[in-house]
Write the C-alpha cells for this entry.
Amino acid sequence: MADDRAPNTADHVHDRAAERPGGHTPVSSAPAADAPDEETPPPFTRLIGIIAGKSFPLYLSMVATVFGTMVTAGVLGHTGTAVLAAYSMTIALYNPASMAVQGALRGSMPFVAENAEDPAELAPTVRNSLWLALCTGLLGGAAVASVPLIARLIGVPSETVGSFGLFPYLMALALLTHSFQACATTLLIGLGRSRQAMAVGLVGTAQSVVLVPALVLVLGLDITGAGLAMLLTGLVVTAVAHTLLRRGTVLAGQNLGLGRPDWSGVRHIARVGLPMGATMLIKFGVLGLLAMAVARVGTTEAAAHQIMVTLVTFVFLPATATGQATVPFMARAARGTPHPRGRGQGRSDDTSGENRTRAAGTREGDPAGSGFVEVRRALLAGLSLALPVIVLSMLLVRVAAGPVIGVFTPDPEVSALVTALIPVVFVVVLADGVQAMPGMGLLALKRTTPTLYTFAVCFGLLALAAFPVASAGGLAWLWWAYALANLGLVVGQGGGFLRLTRARA
C-alpha cells in the first residue's frame, strides 16, 4: 500500500509558520498524515504510487455503493412489478438530483486542498460547504418529492401511482441527508483522507444491504421499507462522515456548526461547483435519452444497451476514483504561493488578475510558473494510473465475454449483440477515462465552466442525433455516436486544460 500521507507539491516549499504572528504554527490534534512530509515534489513513479494509495479506497467505496444499489433493486423486484416501476421512476429523478448535488459540492475540493494544513482557514470553507449542501439538498429533495405529481401529469398507470406510498417523500429526506454526507466525504477527499471516505461508503453499503431486505421482505413494509432503510442509512452515514471529518483531521477542535451564512463564501464555492453539477445533469440526462432511443428499436437492443451501460459504469470507476484522488495534488500544486490570512476560501484569487495568477501557480520569483508544471505532472500521473487499469479491464471483458455477459442475461441474442459491440464499448469507456482527468484538472484550478460548455456541445449534439441515428443504424450506430461524443470531450476538456495551464505557465 502506498504512503497515505498527504503529498507535497510546489506550494509546500514555503514555511507557512512565517505567515502567522510570532511565526508559530497552531497546535492541532490531527494525525500527522495531514502535515507536509517533503519539501520537494516526489519522483514521478512515487507520485503514481501515492495517487494509487489514495484512489484504491475510493474505488472500493464506489464498487460497494453500486453493489448496494443493485441489492435494493433486486429486493424490490421480488415485491411486484408495480412496486419496481414506482421505485424506478423515483430513482430516475433521485439519481440526477443526487449527482447534481455531488457535483456542486465538489466545488469545495480545491479550496480545501490548498489550505489542508490550516484549520483556521479551513473552518469557514467547511461551514460554507454545509450551507451549500443545505441549499442544494432542499432543492433536490423538493424535486424528488414531486414524483407522484409528475407521474399523474404524464399519465403513468394508476397501479404504479398507487404504489408510491411514502417512498418519494422518504427519498426526498434521504437526498437531504445525502447532501450533508456528500459534503463531508468531499471534504475528506480534498484533505487526502481517502481511507476515511472509503469507510463512509462501506458503512453505508453494509447498512443498506442489511436494512433493505429486513424492512422490505422480513417486516413486509414493501417500498416504504426501502425508503426508511435508505433514510436511516443516510442518517448513520452522515453522522459517521462528519465524525471522521471533525475528529480525524486538522479540523479537530474547530467550530464546524452552520452558524450564520457567509453568502459571499458560499457563492465562491458554488461558482466552481454548480457548473460541475450542471455537467452531470447534462450527461445523465442525455444517457437517459439514449436508452429511450434504443427502446424504440427493439427489446433485444434495449437489453443489450443496458448491459453495455453497466459494463461501462464498472470499467469507468477507476478513472472516477483516480480523478477525485488527484484533485488535491493538482490544487496544491496550482496554489503556488500561500494566500495571506483570511483568504482561505480563495475569494481574492477569483476576483483579481494578480491573485488569480498567484493561485494558478506562478510563485514570486518564479516567472516560469513551476506550479503548473506540477499540475500537469499530477494529471499525467493520474492518467498513467487509470488508463492501464481501464484497458486491462476491457481486455478481461473481451477474453471472458461469455461468462461476464452471462451474469446479466441468459438470452443468446442479447449476449451475441453485446459481444459484437465490445470494441465500441472499449472506445467509449477509454475516451471517457481520458476526458475525465483534464476535467478534474479544471476543477482543481477552479475553472469548471469550460467543462460545462464542452459537455453542452458534445452531448447536446448527441441528444439531437440519438433518435435519427438509432432509427437508421440501430444500437451499433448509436454507440458509435456515443463514442464520437466522448472523443469530442477528450478534445474539449484536454484543450481547455492545456490552454489554461500554458497561458499561465
